[in-house]
Design brief:
alpha+beta; Immunoglobulin-like; Neutral Protease, domain 2; 8-stranded mixed β-sheet; 5-stranded mixed β-sheet; binds (3S)-3,7-diaminoheptanoic acid; binds zinc ion; protease; Peptidase_M1_dom
């Protein structure tokens, strides 16, 4: 496969003004007639060939202005259609292809999921339907006619607004025509046909335009779609209020399908979702699922403006829509729930997914400059770090300046296929400022390391802060420039309140914001009456690794007193992480008891909300610690240290946890709201430590929690503890759960993931056995992500077992999955991204497994090959 480069970008020589599609749906032989109205651009030389993309296509016929093309006038291959010498005047091309949705196991293009026809076109799936300019800058107006058997496919959906429907005379078939007035790229095309049912709501936009909202699900699931509808309505209101963005069609349809490679897709007016992000009730969904649904529904809806109305010029600009839309969905959830808690959750996610990516062989800039397979770049870096960059723009410009920039972006680029440069320019012009140094964040990869040290001069009443940034080399970028880093901060005085300074020198400092621009800067604060503890990077104001230069005593002080809740949490995390590393090395951490007692106070602090207290108690994961250690990692030692620490905290604070656990009352009728979810999560966190303690009665208490659970959060949470700590009752619990939920795929996914995450001497055989379970299937991504993804993601000791069995197994299933679904295979094989951090024994095994994939006797997909090669590089 060839390397695609940003610098090679060129406009298409022809413009597709309109496209009219007719789908004659049949499971194994669907015919697609595509009529394109084309014209050459003014500067296109006469005789320039028209080259359209294809992928595994079969051409049935091709006509130019109504006349079949002579054989020598075109060349058709499965992956390309070339029309030689097209007219120099506007012309019409009618292309008929035949495709096989039933055989489409890659879940890209048109495929069948549980008898439902659906599509996934981003990034390059449309070319698996018909020959086309399958690239985001080719915007066109689409009309779609769908024809299908009426009894098995009563519902026919397309993009835009419905036009007409009817029977096809003399057959059992019917049709529907949809028209989308908004020009769009092919990746936003969608079609659905099947036997579905829907829930509906009427919505009126801020300016009074009525919109029909429908969420389509398989029959019998309609009572599980209510939360999604609720989330959709709240998202629409929020975007009007917060960004002044209204919806722009008469209908907004969502469809939930069970076979889907990722979370969901923002097709214009017809979002298609993985059913995991639509279906929820208290019996089958956890609080985290409810939160995820709210986020993803909002995210896809917000794409209507950031993604669809303004799209990307090419795929290198992916973060233009994804980073920005993630930022928007994060802000939405922060407004709907608790802002500090949401911030903590987002940072946990960033640090656990993006930091490892950016510190390993798969590191790439938020806006990459080359790729082989674009589907490999839907990464935590593009999405989550991309969102952090937008957040930093807001931090630097302030809320009003940010909004002005966004307003200009919407106004100036509506209808465009745009770039990051266009986006940045809007903020610069709207605020009369220069963001050129800041823009480095889009181009330079890697996680900067920020090191702080400080000193206090009592006589001069000055406080001096030294800050130094370094960014380690990343693939393709050996030398790094200093970043523009916004550091929100406070100087915390002995009474816990921030001390005001009279003057600051040495950097751009404005109120509580300090902006670093150089490798090393010394900032002197004047008028400081007593020695402060600096609280740096409040709200996690930049995606950097901070070494705060504080001793344990000072960290504990911040954990107790910082007015920034995020940094209170961060202080606790830093302490836990440092101590866990010392324990991993066989040392006994200094200040452990003082820390444990501060932890108890935080857990009991009634002034903090429950969810925050739950997060405060969260131990860094084994993976987090491995990343923090960074080299020669022994995952068994980490696991043992972490287990021991949990046990010790559990034993020394047992009474505290028991007290908190019993005092929290959750209302009897289930509600997924943030407050109730926070109570459940704090209770489960207390139970986690009690279960870990080994103290008599704790296993029975955990089992009782499981037995009494009347919702999935508690049931799954308690079962996970029984299994994780291998308590009496684990086996019974697993059986009871299975009995209760067999037949409900999304619930059984949880059962698979709990079993896969459990520490276990012979984890790989356990997984192998589970792949034979009726609840599992290699063909449905959700099943694979739950079982295999659960093993790779949560079973650190199992996956990184020193004998290499985890690596061998990943190699084996990568090759197996790659034959049918390269995107799923490629996503899993990314778990090798951390192999270079392991100790020598493990590295040898991992490298051998990676090489085995590369040298296997089968044709590898570009997706898998690219990842494996980058890992080995
Ligand atoms: N835009 C889609 C992701 C498509 C992934 C293609 N491999 C979902 C989203 O980010 O909203
Ligand atoms: Zn998105």
């Amino acid at each position: 496969a060839q390397l695609i480069k940003l610098t090679d970008y060129e406009e298409t020589p022809y413009v597709i003004e309109t496209v009219s599609l007719v789908f004659k749906l049949h499971a194994e032989a669907t015919e697609v007639v595509s009529t394109l109205s084309l014209h050459p651009r003014a500067r296109t030389p006469a005789g320039t060939a028209l080259e359209l993309d294809g992928d595994e296509l079969k051409l049935l016929s091709i006509k130019l202005n109504g006349t079949p093309l002579e054989d020598d006038a075109y060349d058709a291959a499965p992956d390309k259609l070339v029309v030689h010498n097209p007219p120099t005047e506007p012309f019409k091309l009618e292309i008929t292809t035949q495709i096989n949705p039933a055989a489409n196991t890659r879940l890209m293009g048109l495929y069948l999921s549980d008898g439902i026809y659906c599509t996934q076109c981003e990034a390059e799936g449309f070319r698996r339907i018909t020959y086309y300019y399958d690239r985001p800058d080719a915007l066109s107006v689409f009309t779609t006619r769908i024809e299908a058997d009426k009894a098995s496919n009563p519902i026919l959906l397309g993009n835009g607004n419905p036009q007409e429907t009817g029977r096809i005379d003399g057959t059992d078939r019917h049709f529907a025509v949809w028209h989308d007035p908004h020009p769009k790229p092919a990746y936003l095309f969608a079609l659905v046909a099947g036997d579905l049912t829907c829930i509906s709501e009427k919505y009126t936009t801020a300016s009074g335009k009525p919109v029909d909202l429908n969420i389509y699900v398989e029959k019998g699931n309609e009572q599980r779609a209510g939360w999604s509808m609720d989330s959709l309505v709240r998202s629409m209101r929020w975007d009007e209020k917060t960004f002044g963005r209204e919806y722009d069609l008469d209908v907004f349809n969502i469809v939930a399908v069970s076979a889907f490679n990722m979370g969901a897709m923002e097709n214009k007016g017809l979002n298609i979702f993985n059913d995991k992000y639509i279906l929820a009730n208290s019996e089958t969904a956890t609080d985290l699922d409810y939160e995820g649904i709210e986020t993803v529904v909002a995210h896809e809806y917000f794409h209507n403006w950031t993604g669809n109305r303004i799209t990307c010029r090419e795929w290198f600009q992916l973060c233009l829509k994804e980073g920005l839309t993630v930022f928007r969905d994060q802000e939405f959830s922060s407004d709907e729930r608790s802002r500090p808690v949401k911030r903590i959750a987002d940072v946990v996610r960033l640090k656990s997914r993006q930091f490892p990516e950016d510190q390993g062989p798969l590191s790439h800039p938020v806006r990459p400059t080359e790729y082989k397979e674009i589907n490999n770049f839907y990464t935590a870096t593009v999405y989550d770090k991309g969102a952090e960059l937008v957040r930093m723009i807001k931090t630097i410009l302030g809320a009003d300046g940010f909004r002005k920039g966004m307003d200009l972006y919407f106004e100036r680029h509506d209808g465009d296929a745009s770039t990051i440069e266009d986006f940045i320019k809007c903020f610069e012009e709207a605020n009369d400022t220069d963001l050129s140094h800041f823009s480095l964040w889009y181009h330079q990869s890697g996680t900067p390391h920020l090191k702080a040290s400080s000193s206090y001069d009592e006589a001069a009443k000055t406080f001096t802060l030294e800050l130094e940034q370094t960014t380690p080399a990343t693939p393709g970028q050996p030398e790094k420039e200093p970043f523009f880093i916004p550091v929100r901060f406070g100087l915390v005085g002995p009474n816990g309140e921030d001390i005001a300074y009279s003057k600051a020198e040495g950097a751009r400092v404005d109120g509580d914001l300090l902006c670093l621009t150089e490798r090393k800067q010394t900032v002197v604060f004047h008028g400081i009456g007593s020695k402060p503890v600096p609280s740096l990077l409040r709200e996690f104001s930049a995606p950097v690794k901070l070494e705060a230069g504080l001793n344990r005593h000072e960290q504990i002080f911040l954990m107790r007193h910082d007015i920034d809740p995020f940094n209170r949490w961060q202080a606790a995390q830093t302490l836990m992480s440092e101590m866990l590393i010392e324990m991993t090395n066989g040392d006994i951490p200094a200040g452990k008891d003082a820390f444990i007692s501060a932890l108890a106070n935080m857990a009991e602090d009634e002034n903090l909300d429950h969810a925050f207290r739950g997060f405060g108690l969260m131990l860094p994961s084994e993976k987090d610690i491995a990343l923090e250690i960074g080299k020669d990692v022994d995952t068994d030692a980490i696991g043992a240290a972490r287990d021991a620490f949990a046990k010790e905290i559990g034993a020394s604070l047992y009474d505290t946890f028991e007290r908190i656990y019993s005092a929290i009352e959750v209302s009897e009728t289930f509600s997924p709201d943030a407050a109730s979810a926070g109570k459940r999560s704090l209770k489960l966190r207390c139970l986690y430590y009690m279960a870990a303690s080994g103290i008599e009665g704790s296993a029975a208490l955990t089992k009782a929690h499981f037995d009494a659970a009347d919702n999935m959060t508690d049931r799954m949470g308690a079962l996970n503890l029984l299994v994780t700590w291998n308590l009496e009752g684990a086996k019974d619990g697993l059986q009871a759960f299975e009995k209760r939920h067999q037949g409900t795929a999304l619930a059984m996914d949880k059962w698979l993931s709990i079993a896969a995450g459990a520490p276990n001497e012979d984890a790989v055989s356990t997984i192998r056995t589970l792949t034979e379970h009726p609840a599992f299937s290699w063909d449905i991504p959700n099943r694979v992500y739950s079982l295999i993804g659960g093993f790779l993601g949560s079973n650190t000791r199992g996956f990184h077992k020193a004998d290499g069995s985890g690596y061998d197994y990943l190699a084996e299933i990568t090759l197996h999955l790659d034959k049918n679904n390269p995107q799923v295979a490629s996503r899993l094989v990314k778990s090798f991204g951390s192999w270079k951090n392991m100790n020598a024994e493990r590295r040898v095994k991992a490298k051998a497994a990676l090489e085995r994939i590369l040298n296997a006797d089968q044709q590898l997909s570009t997706d898998v090959k690219e990842i494996v090669e980058r890992c080995l590089d």
